[in-house]
Amino acid sequence: MDSPNNPSSPEHLSEPASTSPVVARYSYYALSVLTLVNFLNYIDRQVLPAVAPAMQRDLGLTDTEIGAMEAALLLSFTVLAPVFGRLGDRYSRTRLMAAAAVMWSIATGLVAWVDRSPVLPGALRLHLPFIGFVALSSVALGICVVRAVVGVGESSYSTITPTLIADYFPLQRRATALGVFQAAIPMGFALGYVFGPVLAHFFGWRVAFMGVGLPGLIVAFFVARLREPQRGAHDTPARNSETVAPQSWWRTTVQIFTTRNWLVSTAGYTALTFALGAFATWAIIMLVRDKHMSDTNAGLVLGSVSLVGGAAGTFCGGWIADRVVAKRRNGYFLVCAASSFLGIFPAVIALITHQPIFFIPAIFLAVEDVDVVVLHPCSSRVRAYRSTSLRNCRT
Q1: Among residues 179, 180, 209, which one has the least CA distance to residue 195?
Q2: Fewer CB in 10 Å around end: N or C, the chain?
Q3: Each residue of 166-218: pLDDT tens digit?
């Protein structure tokens, strides 16, 4: 096995330095590939909400069934993220991520054919406390299963990738690298709203699913060929592993759940995601049904506003957070709290107004405030830990 101190070693991708670390070109190539897949990931995730009005008209789906489809994805993502975090600590991360990309890409394309499958689960009717009867047709249940598979792939990729980037880049460059990787989120999020309705308008909603799923299969090939970097090569404890006793999975988990800042920030981010998930699922339907826009115009408007607002939030969040933290130790948390609070008012305006001159700028301001919270204050404080679960700041 090559020594980590040998510059010719394929695992030795950069030499750490305290002031001006040199990063190998291969690390930037790997970051480009991983960011591209993350970009496609969020396009695939958003295509169903983007074409939901067309699916409802064609398949007779209810709002409850559309919500169940997104819930299936998020539920599988949430449950399996710790599992894949553990697998990423033990096995090849590049192969796991390539398999994940193939899985969610195929599952995304399969959504187009679920209703034509000869094997479908039976219809479901449940009586839930405080909600009442929830009825799901066989087609809706089949799409829920496929969307859950999309969540399986995404949980693997989103959990493992930040740890891989942390091993490609030294501490001094890591926040920038993670910021680039996370910047693909608002771009994919926004363009999913654009590509979905446009493809559905010209070719039908089925082609929209197949069209956005195909690129993921191609890029997965390049992910599978990425070189696995040495774990913890740029972190002092990992470079001196002979003096640091390895922690058990249970001890690491206890350490996570007894960290006050982690608990508070995760609770806040969970609340934010609760609202953001509703916006992501129902924004297109709201613009079509409540604001009387066409499917295509709703996608173009929402995608454009989200793209510009996401970019503004990303850069403004980093600029503001860097200056606040220079004066206040808890500056990153203050920026998150202020941004979350300020996003309430434009969100309310977007919901209650029906004039584009009011609700479009309101959506822009709400998206901008959300991206300040989601991206910079978190990603700029990421540090590589020995546990995958601790490495993934956003999770």
Answers
A1: 209
A2: N
A3: 888 887 777 778 777 877 887 888 899 999 999 999 999 999 999 998 998 99
CA atoms of 100 and 91, how far apart (whole Å): 14
* Distance, first Cα to last Cα, the chain: 33
What are the pLDDT digits (tens) for 50-92? Answer: 999 999 999 999 999 999 999 999 888 888 888 888 888 888 8
C-alpha of 325 from chain center: 26
How far, in Å, CA of 29 to CA of 115, rounded?
Answer: 40
Looking from the CA of 326 toward its CB, the CA atoms found within 13 Å total 6
Is there a contact between 141 and 71 (Cβ–Cβ < 8 Å)? no
CA 380, CA 392: separation in Å to the nearest integer? 12
Name the token pair of 115: 């209703």
Q: CA 298, CA 53: separation in Å to the nearest integer?
A: 11
Rounded to whole angstroms, how far apart are CA atoms 381 and 182?
13
Contact 214, 112 (CB under 8 A): no
The Cβ of residue 370 has, within 10 Å, a number of other Cβ atoms equal to: 25
What backbone phi and psi angles, to 5 degrees, belong to 258?
Answer: -110, 10
Q: Are residues 85 and 389 in contact, defined by beta-carbon separation less than 8 angstroms?
A: yes
The tokens 């503004």 sit on which residue? 312
CB 166 within 8 A of CB 391: yes
262, 268, 271, 272 alpha-carbon torsion, rounded to 10°? -110
